[in-house]
């Protein structure tokens, strides 16, 4: 049975852009193998469940092949199976929809485009279509 280092596998399976990033996430305790925290040197084998916490979502993958050499994006379905729970996917979708409302700390001021998108989101188009004539109500009394 083949095995591979978790940091190399995370990089080879295109979960992280660099092996250094994968190793750093292991050190921070954001990577688990079968619900146990994993050091970068820990080995994975086919059948293991690898969970990666990328706030606000925790992704889960089932290892199909233990590889250490990076493969093309088209071959990823042969390497891993995405078993992320539906509620985690819902959190991701919500954060995408409202991503510009709750800006991440340190991203600076909103750009003009961000401001316009925020205004469009907060003020629906039909909001300005209503006209209220308050004077007519006062005259009837």
Summarize the structure.
The protein is of the alpha+beta class and 141 residues long. The protein contains 6 helices and 7 strands; from the N terminus they run βααβββββαβααα. The N and C termini lie far apart (88 Å).
CATH topology of the largest domain: Structural Genomics Hypothetical 15.5 Kd Protein In mrcA-pckA Intergenic Region, Chain A
User: What is the quaternary state of this protein?
Assistant: single chain
**CATH homologous superfamily caption of the largest domain:** RNA-binding S4 domain
Structural class: alpha+beta
Q: CATH first level of the largest domain: which class?
A: Alpha Beta
Number of domains: 2
User: Helix content range of the residues, please?
Assistant: 25-40%
